[in-house]
Amino acid sequence: MVKINSDDAHAPYTMDDLLQIMRRLRAPDGCPWDREQDHASIRNNVLEEAYEVADGIDRADDDALCEELGDLLLQVVFHAQIAQEADSFSFADVTDGICRKLIHRHPHVFGSAVAENAEQVLDRWDRIKQAEKAQTTCTDTLRSVPAAFPALLRAAKVQKRAAKSGTDFAAADGLADRLRELCPPTDGQAGKDDLRAVGDLLFAAVCLSRARGVDAEEALQAATDRFITRFSAAEQAAGQPLPDCTAEQRDALWLQAGHAD
Fold first, then answer.
1. Nearest-10 Cα torsion for 13, 19, 22, 27
2. What are the sequence ranges of the domains in the chain?
3. Does residue 167 contact residue 139 with C-beta atoms inside 8 Å?
């Protein structure tokens, strides 16, 4: 039976309470919406909540972080309950699995191995992970990077894993020149090779970001923020709706906003 705490001074809810609440919501006489969901229908919720957690961290907002971690935990419990109903796995299997993984991948803490620094820890972690997943080639490690990752993040992780094999294009000379070579022409109609050309250009840009020690995802976020700030300045200076301005006026406003940046 789920206890309903109406008194703020009541003992706090626990993990067991959360599991009971989710079972109640999914029960035949529970919530119609919760009962209708499956893994696929709430897939994006996991991603959205993870980004909300990241936003709380970026803003150094502990209250928001605490709340968003709860929302993310809810998604874990939700998926585990759906799986348990299908006799696939349970929340207990999830916790058992992660505990076993942590113990196995930290032999320098739970065993007799020695790790003198964080780099050695990460190196051993990668080797243990590859053995667990039967990854016998470098290609196996590249293909294991989830395709669901944001494209820039996935490209960076693939490149970093390739670099461990000695294949690191970020260490090559002439990266900036290579970027210019890859830029497709912007005049004329779009060609069938544009998708490939732009993809190669972005992949090379990630190489350049790694060569300069810059996080590509963070750099693009910052560039987008700068664009919005500059756009706002141009719009405020226009004195009229931007769509009502001529192309020449908009160009002048954009240049003016750039000088103020």
1. -120
2. 15-103, 106-114+121-144, 148-214, 223-260
3. no
State both tokens at 66: 């605490």
CB count within 10 Å of CB 22 equals: 21
Other CB atoms within 10 A of residue 199 CB: 13
Return the closest-CA partner of residue 39 out of 100, 72, 69, 82.
Answer: 82
- Hey, what are 137's tokens? 């080639």
Q: What is the pLDDT of residues 193-228, one digit of tens each?
A: 778 888 888 888 898 888 888 999 889 988 888 888
Q: Which helix (H) or strand (E) holds 98?
A: helix 91-104
Gap between the Cα atoms of 29 and 20, Å rounded: 14
CB atoms within 10 A of CB 97: 11
Structure confidence by residue, pLDDT tens digits, 67-104:
999 999 999 999 999 999 999 999 999 999 999 999 99
Residue type at 28 in one-letter notation: P
**Alpha carbon distance 162, 142 (integer Å):** 7
Q: Which residues contact 165 (CB under 8 A, 6 or more apart)?
A: 138
Q: Which fold, 15-103?
A: Helix Hairpins (1.10.287)
Cα–Cα dist 103/44, whole Å: 30
DSSP characters for 141-205?
HHHTS-TTS-HHHHHHHHHHHHHTTT--GGGSS-HHHHHHHHPPP-SSSPPTTHHHHHHHHHHHH
- 8 Å CB contact between 209 and 216: yes
What are the distances in angstroms from CA 101 to CA 29, 107, 250? 37, 11, 57
Query: Which letter, b or e, does each residue of 227-255 get, where b requires 16 or more Cβ atoms within 10 Å of its Cβ?
Result: eeebeebbbeebeeeeeebeeeeeeebee
CA distance 72 to 50: 6
pTM tops 0.70: yes
